Amino acid sequence: MITIKSPREIEMMKKSGELLASVHIALRDFIKPGITSWDIEKFVHKIIEDGGGIAAQIGFEGYKYATCCSINDEICHGFPRHEKLKDGDLISVDMCVELNGAMSDSCWSYLVGKTTPELEHLMEVTEKALYLGIEQAVVGNRVGDIGHAIQTYVEGEKFGVVRDFIGHGIGPTIHEAPAIPHYGEAGKGLRLKEGMVITIEPMVTTGTWKMKMDDNGWTARTRDGGICCQFEHTLAITKDGPLILTSQNRTEA
Questions:
Q1: CA separation for the pair 96, 58 (Å, rounded)
Q2: Domain holding 186: CATH number?
Q3: Is residue 213 part of a domain?
């Protein structure tokens, strides 16, 4: 069932999103060669709790951690662990925050230390794809308009768009209807209405978009070993256009 949020509920979700965004801002300086994704897990969890929030991923469908830390060929749901990050790694850190009953969800990718022009380009394309999708998240448009904008741009840049994991509605639980694919046909799918709150979270790969699953039953990887990058925002559909609730730049909010 799709839930339509009131202005008050959206404002509460924005406060949750502000706490979540503050974590990603702090990670910009924290992530460097020599730390581990377990260090990131502890760092993130502390900021969320110090801000009065709850790390909502813990316990969700049996997941054990505050973060998903996906490195290089991992598409999503990478477990935090003790191996040290090194120059040239790309890590995507995904988290959900509950604050006073309001949910927010955002993933951001980070380049570790010295990197390459190819990885920088992957990052730029993925982030731009996110915002191209957000531009289509307006009252009266359809879900397919979001996916089409993302897919057309990404494939035009010769990258792949993951199909198996998609955006979703959010609040009062983490995953709700509607499904928000990052591919599709313009003018097709569910029509967007004022008060919907959704995530847009393209996962973009240097090779094939096809995946394989680790034995842990959670972590997905690219089938060909290509690198994957992800950016995600939670946003509300309003009569004045999309309102980004997890913005790291307050001029977007």
A1: 9
A2: 3.90.230.10
A3: yes
Helices 37-50 and 7-30 meet at what angle, rounded to 10? 140
Q: What is the spatial distance between Cα 21 and Cα 39, in angstroms, rounded to a whole number? A: 18
Helix 117-135 and helix 143-156, axial crossing angle in degrees, nearest 10: 160
| Residue 70 included in any domain | yes
Q: Which residues span the domain enclosing 181?
A: 7-244
* Global confidence as pTM: 0.97
Work out how many domains the chain is built from and give that number.
1
Cis ω on the peptide bond leading into residue 181 (within 30° of 0)? no
Residue 203's H or E segment, with its range, is strand 203-205
Q: 84 lies in a domain? A: yes
Does a structural domain hold residue 2?
A: no
| pLDDT tens sequence for the chain (253 residues) | 899 999 999 999 999 999 999 999 999 999 999 999 999 999 999 999 999 999 999 999 999 999 999 999 999 999 999 999 999 999 999 999 999 999 999 999 999 999 999 999 999 999 999 999 999 999 999 999 999 999 999 999 999 999 999 999 999 999 999 999 999 999 999 999 999 999 999 999 999 999 999 999 999 999 999 999 999 999 999 999 999 999 998 656 5
Count of beta carbons in the 10 Å neighbourhood of residue 194: 14
